[in-house]
Amino acid sequence: MEDSGAILCQISIFKDMLDQVSLFFFLFTGLVNREIEANIQVTREIESHIGNCSEMESSLSVKEAELTKSFIASQFEISGLISVTADSRNSLKLLEDDICRLRNEHSELITRLTEKR
Question: Can you tell me the distance from the alpha carbon of 45 to that of 41, in angstroms, rounded to the nearest whole number?
Fold first, then answer.
């Protein structure tokens, strides 16, 4: 009987140890689960920020395209204005030359008329 008492005592000790291990495992599992949940929450927040950044990037890409279009249109307009300015200067030079020539002809006519009188 002593052996059965000793065996029962050993079984009781092993049961207590098993209960402690089970409790430790339960607590450890709870901590791990909380850590996993915290990591999942952080991951969700990061994904949310990534989504916001993607939306902002898309919006900025649209704005960039609009500004590029406006810039190209402005460059085209400036190029046209430069061309018109050059043409106007050439035309002005031709008109000035014509006026100078006509003044000279007018002056010569006046001189001839004066000489004839």
Answer: 6
Q: Residue 113, SS3?
A: helix
The answer to whether the Cα torsion of 50, 53, 55, 58 is positive or negative is negative
**Across the chain, how many H-helices and E-strands are there?**
1, 0
pLDDT in tens, 55-81: 999 999 999 999 999 999 999 999 999
Cα dihedral 26/29/30/32 (nearest 10): 160
Residue matched to tokens 């450890």: 28
Q: What is the pTM of this model?
A: 0.53
Q: Dihedral sign for Cα 110, 112, 115, 117, please.
A: negative
Could you say which DSSP state residue 73 is in? H
Distance CA 60, CA 63 (A): 5
